[in-house]
């Protein structure tokens, strides 16, 4: 069958600049054409060659080559594709049951020892398409598919593989024959249609010159490197440019379209380009883990795009028109431009090392640190429940709000603090004190309320006299002729606020004297009795006079 052989995939610029439909039109036919050609062709020039077979149901089987001393099985193909029926990589010494091909015979090429790493390297000139599941039969192993011409994924998945590396480049080895690093030139990886499901894989690596995500990608941990040069994914953080330049750098290194999405537990992305290093028009979330993005260009989040993680670190310039949110911490090492309608939020701390230009919403539940110049445009809002630290020049035409640490009271207390940020808005980022004052007002007023209620006690006099049993003694005081003049226990107000209530009820007490007298037999009644009369004038001296007479008073009331 005739087909066109191409040395590499076309550059990604047209797809990055146009809508998703145009991107699919560029990418899908190219990969589909190669997948329809010979799915698997072993390189006849290889010294140690794998063999091909089919399961009882027709599923292709690759009896991988014997592993070396390091456990690496190196398999070379001129054509490497996985169709909808899937592919079984036989890594079992004995007969074994598989999910895709049923029961299969053991692989005699292994020499009695299974491999720990299965490298499938393409030496031909066509890209590879992974449109089905790849299963490792027998002992689980790492699977590496390396094709410098590019790799397309449309419904790809992996079974019994603990680590998967898709490399649109070449593999370089060290002196001992172990994998040292990957080298990329022009190859790209495109995820389309039915997407890529690597949820059963501990680690997924995507290494290419450009990466396009036009469908859903599910995984646990993802490392995505899009650059020209070398990448060492074995050592996190070492995937830097090798220093050799490429005059024709793409506009976009990593592109997640509107229909594309990435859902890992944690992801590390590195994109190097002349313009946008990472372009996010879809959704990228790692709500239970972290996202670390480094870019030689701009990290752009489009309107409708979102970037969500528990911990989010961006080593590059961020341009946001969508939603960027971190659960615990968000840090941006470069400039930060938040456009109108854009939201950048952190449930914990937020820090920016470069200049900040905000036309949308910028918020942190905890402290916010802005080290560079700050421009807050009209209608924009910057807020923090903690302190806002700002080191550079400030140009503020919007709202800039800072709060002191939230009080330990109920959320109701927060409302007065947030509704009266008059001293905290605008350029005043020291308004935390004003907010605290607002919260204190509703707390302290409780005492004044009791004091003010004294004049109006007649309305609640009856219930008050019923609760305090001891206050009944004041009735005895009324029986004394001299008590009204010397009963002003103004000093007793702080002792028991109930006393004023009883004092005002004096006129109503003549009706229930006798039963009340029976209850307050103890001498303490005398003290309370003195507190009933108009208390404003004479304090404690009066209390000394009626100390002894208490017995006679009771005697007089009995008749």
TrEMBL record:
Keyword Magnesium: no
SMART domains: Haemagg_act (SM00912)
Pfam families named among the record's database cross-references: TPS
Region annotated Disordered, chain positions: 409-433, 479-559
Signal peptide start and end residues: 1-35
Protein name: Filamentous hemagglutinin
Superkingdom assignment: Bacteria
InterPro entries for this protein: FhaB/CdiA-like_TPS, Pectin_lyas_fold, Pectin_lyase_fold/virulence
Keyword list, A-Z: Signal
Domain named Filamentous haemagglutinin FhaB/tRNA nuclease CdiA-like TPS: residues: 56-176
């Amino acid at each position: 069958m005739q087909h066109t052989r191409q040395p590499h995939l076309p550059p990604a610029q047209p797809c990055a600049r146009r809508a998703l439909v145009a991107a699919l039109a560029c990418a899908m036919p190219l990969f589909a054409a190669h997948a329809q050609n010979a799915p698997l062709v072993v390189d006849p020039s290889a010294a140690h060659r794998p063999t091909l077979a089919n399961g009882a149901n027709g599923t292709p089987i690759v009896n991988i080559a014997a592993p070396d001393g390091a456990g690496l099985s190196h398999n070379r193909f001129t054509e490497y594709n996985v169709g909808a029926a899937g592919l079984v990589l036989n890594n079992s010494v004995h007969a074994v049951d598989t999910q895709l091909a049923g029961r299969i015979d053991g692989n005699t090429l292994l020499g009695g020892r299974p491999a720990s790493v299965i490298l499938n390297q393409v030496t031909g000139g066509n890209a590879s398409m992974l449109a089905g599941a790849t299963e490792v039969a027998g002992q689980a192993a790492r699977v590496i598919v390396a094709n410098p011409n590019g790799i397309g994924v449309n419904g790809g998945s992996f079974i019994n593989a603990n680590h998967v590396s898709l490399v649109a480049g070449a593999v370089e080895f060290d002196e001992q024959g172990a994998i040292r690093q990957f080298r990329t030139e022009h190859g790209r990886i495109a995820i389309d249609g039915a997407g890529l499901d690597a949820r059963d894989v501990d680690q997924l690596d995507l290494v290419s010159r450009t990466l396009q995500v036009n469908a859903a990608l599910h995984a646990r941990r993802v490392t995505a490197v899009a650059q020209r040069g070398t990448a060492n994914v074995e050592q996190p953080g070492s995937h830097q440019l090798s220093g050799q330049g490429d005059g024709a750098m793409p506009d976009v290194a990593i592109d997640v379209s509107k229909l594309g999405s990435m859902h890992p537990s944690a992801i590390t992305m590195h994109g190097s380009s002349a313009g946008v290093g990472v372009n996010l028009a879809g959704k990228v979330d790692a709500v239970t883990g972290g996202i670390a993005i480094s870019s030689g260009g701009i990290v752009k989040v489009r309107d409708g795009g979102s970037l969500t993680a528990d911990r989010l670190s961006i080593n590059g310039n961020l341009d946001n028109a969508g939603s960027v949110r971190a659960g615990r911490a968000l840090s941006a090492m470069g400039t930060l431009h938040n456009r109108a309608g854009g939201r950048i939020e952190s449930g914990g701390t937020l820090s920016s090392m470069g200049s900040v230009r905000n036309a949308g919403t910028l918020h942190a539940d905890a402290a916010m640190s802005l080290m560079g110049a700050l421009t807050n445009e009209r209608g924009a809002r910057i807020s923090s429940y903690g302190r806002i630290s700002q080191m550079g020049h400030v140009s503020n035409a919007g709202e800039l709000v800072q709060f002191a640490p939230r009080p330990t009271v109920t959320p109701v207390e927060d409302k007065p603090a947030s509704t009266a940020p008059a001293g905290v808005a605008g350029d005043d980022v020291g308004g935390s004190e004003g907010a605290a004052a607002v919260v204190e007002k509703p707390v302290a007023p409780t005492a004044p309320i009791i004091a003010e209620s004294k004049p109006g006690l007649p309305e609640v006099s009856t219930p008050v006299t019923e609760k305090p049993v001891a206050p009944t003694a004041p009735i005895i005081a009324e029986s004394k002729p001299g008590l009204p003049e010397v009963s002003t226990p103004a000093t007793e107000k702080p002792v028991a606020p109930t006393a004023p209530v009883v004092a005002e009820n004096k006129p109503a007490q003549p009706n229930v004297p006798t039963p009340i007298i029976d209850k307050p037999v103890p001498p303490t009644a005398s003290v309370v009795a003195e507190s009933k009369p108009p208390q404003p004038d004479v304090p404690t001296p009066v209390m000394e006079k009626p100390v002894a007479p208490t017995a006679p008073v009771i005697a007089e009331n009995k008749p």
